[in-house]
Specification:
This protein is of the alpha+beta class and about 80 residues long. It has one domain. Helices cover about 45% and strands about 15% of the residues. It contains 2 helices and 2 strands, in the order ββαα. It has a two-stranded antiparallel ribbon with strand order 1-2. The longest helix is centred in the last third of the chain and has 22 residues, at about 55-75.
């Protein structure tokens, strides 16, 4: 019985992405980015996400706080 030989083929792929000059809506910095990128970097993306969901986070923290207060009041 003969064993089959395995060959390794290396493939190089070139992608062409169109970039435009954009302005970050959070910090106002001008940057070059692809058409689907809105923010200049991760810190601005995080800040925008935090601001977008701030009220929901506050509401959740309020509920947790009140639940903990009621639980501790019941133990006394």
């Amino acid at each position: 019985m003969k064993k089959k030989k395995e060959d390794v083929v290396e493939i190089t792929v070139t992608r062409r992405i169109t970039v435009k000059e954009k302005t970050c809506p959070v910090c106002g910095t001008t940057f070059m980015g692809p058409t689907n990128k809105r923010f200049c970097g991760r810190p601005c993306l995080n800040k925008a996400s935090y601001e977008k969901h701030a009220e929901a986070r506050r509401e959740h923290r309020r509920k947790v706080y009140h639940a903990e207060r009621q639980a501790s009041a019941g133990k006394k």
